[in-house]
């Protein structure tokens, strides 16, 4: 039985999409809808649907953030990643991002013909997956991961001078931390935790705001909430789920690169 999860914070819209799916794909079993991004992630990981329809604008996590979390946290024993369809009220100009990324989407209000075409593509993809399983061929999620990476790529920010010093507070003391000394950065609510070989500190800035001001060739995003200085990484070990465990030269802890960013660590 093919299952689908709808994530939509407006109950009437969720009910309408569920009804339209019933007409376009009668054999599809649609689970009870999730009302926000956090619930969508929790329910997807628990119920493991074949398809997830994610509204872009939702409270807590938005649809893109929910998709990223589902992909990063998908259990190794759960098989192939769910197929993800984004549902959006954006205009055609904004939808170009979805088209460039070759990610399937539905525009509100959802048109029956467009939904029927989307469902046909989903059925075809799931049939190919089933055939691959029957042939004992491992399912390759690389294409899906690549499309999602493309969609998640931050739009160009207005040019700003690159940071060379991070001003981080530790209690009543302000530490001037050279960027060259940063081993990794970790999102912490409304702050970023700055970790060097010798200390930790917090700066009042989001990771999304900070990342464009760091040299991209040196600082690599490895998880939705973690950025590491590339030359601080000593080893990278890939596990069966596609995640990569990193050891560091100057710190004892291990970091994990999610499936979305594991492609950064390949042999030369």
What is this structure's SSE topology?
Layout: E1 3-7, H1 11-24, E2 29-30, H2 37-47, E3 51-55, H3 63-73, E4 83-88, H4 92-100, E5 105-107, H5 112-134, H6 142-152, E6 165-170, E7 173-178, E8 182-188, E9 191-196, E10 200-203, H7 207-210, E11 219-223, E12 226-229, E13 233-238, E14 244-248, E15 255-257
Parallel strand pairs: 1-2, 1-3, 3-4, 4-5
Antiparallel strand pairs: 6-7, 8-9, 8-12, 9-10, 11-12, 13-14, 14-15
In short:
The chain starts with a strand and ends in an 11-residue tail after the last strand. The chain is of the alpha/beta class and 268 residues long. The protein is built from 7 helices and 15 strands.
Commentary on this structure:
The protein is an alpha/beta fold. The protein folds into two domains: 3-152, Rossmann fold (3-Layer(aba) Sandwich), CATH 3.40.50.2300; 165-264, OB fold (Dihydrolipoamide Acetyltransferase, E2P) (Beta Barrel), CATH 2.40.50.1020. Helices cover 31% and strands 27% of the residues. The chain contains seven helices and 15 strands. A hairpin with a 5-residue loop joins β13 and β14. The longest helix is centred in the middle third of the chain and has 23 residues, at 112-134. The protein is elongated and about 60 Å long. The termini are far apart. The model has no long low-confidence stretch (mean pLDDT 88).
What characteristics describe this protein?
268 residues; alpha/beta; Rossmann fold; OB fold (Dihydrolipoamide Acetyltransferase, E2P); five-stranded antiparallel β-sheet
Helix content: 25-40%
Strand element count = 15
CATH superfamily heading of the largest domain: Response regulator
Count of individual helical segments? 7
């Amino acid at each position: 039985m093919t299952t689908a999860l709808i994530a939509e914070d407006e109950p009437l819209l969720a009910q309408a999409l569920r009804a339209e799916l019933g007409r376009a794909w009668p054999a599809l079993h649609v689970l009870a809808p999730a009302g926000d991004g956090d619930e969508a992630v929790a329910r997807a990981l628990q119920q493991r649907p074949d398809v997830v329809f994610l509204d872009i604008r939702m409270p807590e996590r938005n649809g893109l953030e929910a998709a990223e979390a589902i992909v990063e946290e998908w259990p190794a024993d759960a098989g192939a990643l769910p197929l993800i369809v984004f549902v959006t009220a954006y205009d055609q100009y904004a939808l170009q991002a979805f088209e460039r990324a070759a990610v399937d989407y539905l525009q509100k209000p959802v048109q029956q013909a467009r939904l029927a075409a989307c469902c046909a593509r989903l059925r075809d993809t799931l049939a190919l997956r089933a055939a691959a399983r029957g042939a004992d061929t491992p399912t390759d999620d690389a294409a899906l991961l690549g499309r999602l990476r493309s969609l998640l790529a931050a739009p160009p920010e207005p040019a700003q001078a690159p940071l060379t010093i991070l001003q981080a507070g530790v209690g009543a003391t302000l530490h001037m931390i050279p960027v060259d000394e940063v081993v990794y950065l970790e999102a912490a609510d409304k702050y970023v935790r700055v970790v060097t070989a010798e200390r930790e500190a917090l700066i009042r800035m989001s990771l999304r705001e900070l990342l464009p001001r760091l040299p991209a060739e040196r600082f690599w995003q490895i998880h939705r909430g973690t950025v590491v200085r590339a030359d601080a990484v000593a080893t990278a070990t890939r596990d069966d789920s596609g995640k990569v465990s990193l050891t560091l030269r100057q710190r004892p802890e291990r970091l994990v690169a999610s499936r979305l960013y594991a492609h950064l660590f390949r042999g030369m």
